Amino acid sequence: MSSINNVAVIGAGQMGGGIAQIAAVAGFTVTVCDSMPDALARCKDGHGKRLARDIEKGKIRKADADAALGRLTYSSDIAAVKNADIVIEAVVEDAGVKKGMFSTVAPMVGPNCILATNTSSISITEIASVTGAAADRVIGMHFFYPVPVMKLVEVINGLQTRPDVTKAVIALAEKMGKTAIPANDRAGFVSNRVLMPMINEAFYAWMEGVAEPKHLDDIMKLGCNFPMGPLQLADLIGLDTCAHIMEVLADGLNSDRYRPCPLLKQLVTAGRLGQKSGRGVYDYPPAGK
Ligand code: NAD
């Protein structure tokens, strides 16, 4: 496996933006791709603001932040990934969309390019199945939100992933300042297999009137020593992402007990997606309002 210099991130949302930022700070040249120009503009703006905050807090020197920003480019043309040594996909949590993306990207990149996905729950083997001979270079690289803060990268091999690809991805995660821990390719891996059913259960408890959201979250914070309540965490992750993950668990583990709670689905249908849409379980008014 040749060394990694150029990183391409597809999807400039909450996760892609964070992954691109830490890769640039770690010294990699980074191309961020998204089909929505608005998302790219927000992502670029977010990079500037977050790094400016980090300078103020003394977490990074101005010269290093400026150099990181200089290593980032943004494009709405997917062909911009073609010179990447690794592509890290972070588009919506939908198997059809991800497979479409991998079948487009696999023939575009070089024969040594690693094809990583930041999926929270979808089978790596399934995503790899659309990439033909590139399937042995497909791997799960599951970062956590907010990416610059959270230490873990869950690394998931597909059935055909080559050991040198796994080794390169673990080394890359470590260069980005993360701790890489392996998990096997079962729906939800470890993190979401355990976390999401708990979040889903919190929606059931709210729906059934066991407690109002704030009380429910406070009980879990004070009683279970959670840093934030499960409904707060759902708002942070995105309610659409939570609902998608539950569907993937239900299908992948072949059990309806993992289906998303009707209230969670209803909030998503109403466009209440959490912090990213300004309203989820709780309201997030724009600054100043
Ligand atoms: P998001 O909605 O914030 O961002 C998704 C981005 O993908 C959007 O900017 C959208 O424009 C773009 N996109 C959609 N289809 C595209 C396409 N065909 N081509 C190019 N760009 C496209 O979502 P997110 O929260 O950043 O999640 C992204 C992925 O990361 C998902 O697979 C999710 O499960 C995973 N993930 C999310 C979290 C979390 O806490 N939010 C944590 C770990 C992993």
Written description of the protein model:
With 289 residues, this protein is α/β, with parallel strands linked by helices. It folds into two domains: 6-183, Rossmann fold, CATH 3.40.50; 192-276, N-(1-d-carboxylethyl)-l-norvaline Dehydrogenase, domain 2 (Orthogonal Bundle), CATH 1.10.1040.10. The chain has eleven helices and eight strands. Strands 3-2-1-4-5-6-7-8 form an eight-stranded mixed β-sheet, sandwiched between helices. Helix 1 (14-25) packs across helix 2, helix 7 (191-207) packs across helix 10 and helix 10 (239-252) packs across helix 11. It starts with 5 loop residues before the first strand and ends in a 20-residue tail after the last helix. The protein binds nicotinamide-adenine-dinucleotide (NAD). Residues 10-16, 34-36, 39, 90-93, 97, 101, 118-120, 142-145, 237-238, 241, 276 line the site of nicotinamide-adenine-dinucleotide.
Annotated CATH homologous superfamily of the largest domain: NAD(P)-binding Rossmann-like Domain
Task: Calculate the terminal CA-CA distance, rounded to whole Å.
Answer: 52 Å
Residues in helix, %? 40-55%
Q: What is the C-level CATH assignment of the largest domain? A: Alpha Beta
Low-confidence stretches: none
CATH topology of the largest domain: Rossmann fold
Order of helices and strands: EHEHHEEHEHEEHEHHHHH
Biggest β-sheet strands, sense, barrel: 8 strands, mixed
Give a summary of the structure in a few sentences.
It contains eleven helices and eight strands. The chain has helices at about 15-25, 35-55, 60-70, 95-105, 125-130, 165-175, 190-205, 215-225, 230-235, 240-250, 260-270; strands at about 5-10, 30-35, 70-75, 85-90, 115, 140, 150-155, 180-185.
